[in-house]
Write a sequence for this structure.
C-alpha cells in the first residue's frame, strides 16, 4: 500500500479518519488514528459544547475547546493531525485561525464551497502556513469551481481534495432523490475529479491527491476505489465503533444494534439531507413534533433558528453524550456492519491486511495476463 503524499507531508497509510461532529471525533480518536499512521481528524463543529458553561460564550468556548483538543492530540501522538471545519459555521474564520495557529497539519473544509479565504490567510500567504488546505466536495464540478477560483484569486490551489459520495454519514451534498436512486457512483465521481484536477497539477507542477469518502468500510472497498484513481480514503462510520472514538458507548451501540433497513435519511434543519440511524426520536421529528430551544449562538450561517423544529447541534451533542432519546446518530450506509467495538489498531490491521490480500490477487492476475499476452505474441 503506497503512502499518501500531500505536498511535503507523508502519511504512512492513505487512510484518513473523517471529522465527525458534534464531539464524535475529538483528540482521543484523532491521536489514535495518527498513531497508526493515518490522519486523525478533530471535528470543530460546535466543539465548544464540550466546555462547561458554553452557553454564555459559545464562540469563545469553540475556540478554547478546539485549541485544547489539537494540543491534546499532539501530546498523545507524533502523527498527522487534522481539523474538520464546516464552511457553513458562523465562526469558521475564528476556528480556521485556531487550527492554523496550532499548526494542525491539515484542515478539511466542507459543508459549503471554501471560495473566499479570511484576510489573515491571504496576508500571511499559503506558502508560509504549515497547515495544508483540503476542500471536501461532492463531485468534479465543485472541485473545478474551487480550483479555478483559488488559481485566479490566490495564485494557489488546494493541497488535495476529498470527494464524498452519496453513501456517507452525516450531512450530504446531494439531493434526496440522488441518495436513493443509486445512479451516483463514487468511482465515477473520483475518475471525473482526477481528470479535472490534472489540469491544475500540470499548471502548478505538483501532485494533487484526490481522496475518496463515503461507504468505504473494508480494505477491499479501499482497494476498489483506489483503482478509480483515488490516492487515499476517508472513513467516518468505520471509526465510530472503536474504543477510542470520543462518543458515548450508547452512540457506538446504536451502530452495533442497527440493521441495514435502520439506516435512513432525514431533512436536517440546516437544509441538507442527513443519513442517520432510525429511532424513536427520528419518528417523532418526521411526524412533525418539535423540540423548542434557545439558540445560544447561531452556529450555522444557514440556520433559521426561529423556524427550525430543533437545534441540530443540540441534538447531535445529545446523541454523542448518550442521550439518543433526544437526538439521532449520524451514520453511513455501512453502519449496520459493525458487530463489536474494536481498537483503532485492530481496524488499521484489518484494513491493511484486507487491502493487501486483494492486491495480491490483482498482482497474480496481472502476471497471468502478461504471461498470456507474451505467449500469444510468440
Ligand atoms: C457520526 C458522523 C458525524 C459526522 N459529522 C461530520 C461533520 O460534522 N462535518 C463534516 O464535514 N462531515 C461529517 N461527517 C462525515 C465524515 O467526515 C466522513 O466524510 C464520512 O463519514 C465518510 O463516509 P462513511 O461514514 O461512509 O465512512 C460525519 C460522519 C459521521 C458518520
Amino acid at each position: 500500500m503506497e503512502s499518501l503524499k500531500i505536498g511535503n507531508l507523508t502519511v504512512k497509510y492513505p487512510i484518513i479518519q473523517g471529522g465527525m461532529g458534534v464531539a464524535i471525533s475529538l483528540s482521543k480518536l484523532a491521536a489514535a488514528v495518527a498513531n497508526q499512521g493515518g490522519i486523525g481528524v478533530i471535528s470543530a463543529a460546535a466543539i465548544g459544547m464540550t466546555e462547561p458553561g458554553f452557553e454564555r460564550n459559545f464562540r469563545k468556548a469553540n475556540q478554547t475547546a478546539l485549541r485544547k483538543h489539537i494540543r491534546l492530540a499532539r501530546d498523545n501522538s507524533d502523527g498527522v493531525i487534522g481539523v474538520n471545519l464546516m464552511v457553513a459555521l458562523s465562526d469558521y474564520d475564528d476556528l480556521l485561525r485556531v487550527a492554523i495557529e496550532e499548526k494542525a497539519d491539515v484542515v478539511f473544509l466542507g459543508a459549503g464551497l471554501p471560495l473566499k479565504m479570511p484576510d489573515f490567510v491571504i496576508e500571511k500567504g499559503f506558502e508560509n502556513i504549515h497547515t495544508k488546505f483540503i476542500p471536501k466536495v461532492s463531485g468534479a464540478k465543485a472541485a473545478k469551481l474551487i480550483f479555478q477560483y483559488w488559481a485566479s484569486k490566490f495564485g494557489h490551489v488546494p493541497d488535495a481534495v476529498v470527494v464524498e459520495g452519496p453513501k456517507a454519514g452525516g450531512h450530504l451534498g446531494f439531493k434526496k432523490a440522488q441518495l436513493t436512486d443509486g445512479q451516483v457512483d463514487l468511482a465515477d465521481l473520483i475518475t471525473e475529479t482526477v481528470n479535472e484536477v490534472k489540469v491544475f497539477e500540470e499548471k502548478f507542477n505538483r501532485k494533487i491527491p484526490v481522496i475518496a469518502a463515503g461507504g468505504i468500510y473494508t480494505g477491499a472497498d479501499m482497494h476498489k476505489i483506489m483503482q478509480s484513481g483515488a490516492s487515499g480514503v476517508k472513513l467516518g462510520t468505520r471509526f465510530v465503533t472503536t474504543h477510542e472514538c470520543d462518543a458515548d458507548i450508547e452512540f457506538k451501540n446504536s451502530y452495533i444494534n442497527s440493521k441495514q433497513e435502520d439506516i435512513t435519511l432525514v431533512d436536517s434543519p440546516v437544509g441538507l439531507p442527513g443519513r442517520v440511524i432510525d429511532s424513536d426520536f427520528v419518528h417523532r421529528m418526521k411526524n412533525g413534533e418539535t423540540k423548542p430551544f434557545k439558540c445560544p449562538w447561531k452556529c450555522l450561517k444557514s440556520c433559521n433558528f426561529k423556524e427550525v423544529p430543533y437545534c441540530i447541534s443540540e441534538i447531535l451533542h445529545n446523541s454523542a453524550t448518550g442521550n439518543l432519546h433526544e437526538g439521532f446518530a449520524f451514520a453511513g450506509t455501512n453502519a449496520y456492519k459493525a458487530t463489536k467495538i474494536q481498537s483503532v489498531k485492530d481496524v488499521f490491521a484489518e484494513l491493511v491486511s484486507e487491502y493487501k490480500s486483494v492486491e495480491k490477487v490483482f498482482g497474480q492476475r496481472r502476471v497471468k495476463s502478461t504471461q498470456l499476452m507474451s505467449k500469444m505474441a510468440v
